[in-house]
Structure of M20/M25/M40 family metallo-hydrolase:
Amino acid sequence: MRKVLILLGLTALTPAVARADIPHHPQAEAQALTLAEKAIALRSVAGPGNQTPQVAILFRSALIEGGFQAKDITITPFGDTAYMIARWPGSDPSLKPLVLSGHMDVVEAKPADWQRDPFRPVVENGYLYGRGATDMKLDATIVIATLSELKREGYKPRRDIILALSGDEETAMETGKILADKLSNADLVLNGDVGVGILDEKTGKPSYYSWEGAEKTYADFQMTVTNPGGHSSEPRADNAIDRLAAALLRIQKYQFRPELNALSKNYFTNAAQFQPANIASAMRAFAINPGDRNAIATLSADPALIGKIGTTCVVTMISGGHALNALPQNATANINCRIFPGHPRSTIMAELEKVAADPQIHFTDVTQGSVETEASPMRPDFTQAIDKAMHSVYPGLPVFSGMSSGASDSMWFRSHNVPSYSISSVFLRPSENFSHGLNERTPVASITPAIDFYLALLPDLSR
């Protein structure tokens, strides 16, 4: 009852994200918050003491309490982590399953750096604080609470609904690949990890909702220069660190060809109305002509937008030399790239080699846990269902596609040609998105509309 009162009180205090015309589901709402608090308290971080398996056990217990059969839920240990598959059998086994994807692990967080202990969840001023509040333990518990609510309401899916939660999405991403391999016969995947509703910075009212049907390919390329070296008292023109530095500056100044796909064009066209005039004009111009130099310059100057207009590469780590009084015998740098869908990593590495323009610099692809994928299609059944579900919660709210600049488990499903769409249902102000950062938090008032959204969406896509 305490959680129900907290939720109802916060909803009443936050009209920007509450709708009086939509019936609420207090049991599901309270369960989502309580379960999220318990999950956040478990330090599911890669390495010694990883408690991701305990998160899986917690979620399994919640699903069984919500009506799932124990035999339909499996937790599989993998190294220091684990992954989970929970199946809700449908009435027609000939239909391909609907997969709900997510992850149970979180990014490391050091309590000394935070205002609050990241693994001691707390609700303050209408926000749930803690590592995983946004990415993505609350999203996972909202899905679990929704599935339990559907079972209480007597819903019977025609196709199987499968909840697939990985255990190392924030690091090696190996369990996500395993899940995708096992579930490669899925009809489509709904990933709660990315995609988010946007609240207006000033009013706190919902501005728009953007789901994501593509993501850029993650890549790491190592640049290495070797040299005989020598005594530092006898400088030479050929210096490994100097060569590396010069090449890095050439790469810094280089811009890959800006480009569009159907998803990003739809994003720029629709999201422009929510931007300042100069950004809006550039977004519209770029959507019409991705070669527009003025539009490219404007969008490239915005860190939140440059990643949406093409491939980006940036140096993230450097090392070199072996002694303070010796010429360097080697120097290395890591170039991290986020590659626009449709380009192999090898093509981008070859382009970087041309930009570096130094035959003494050796490039190596050292990428781990990533695969190149094309964008998912804008399937009419999916786009219509998500529009309908979101509009049942927020009538008239703009809903459109987008593309993620980061990586998620969706790439593993897309590598099997299974359409995957990122549809996190929480709403945030852009300035309050602290995923991977300090003092991560999410409005508690997001829970009610998120559950209503899923209650409308899942029956549409599991029939």
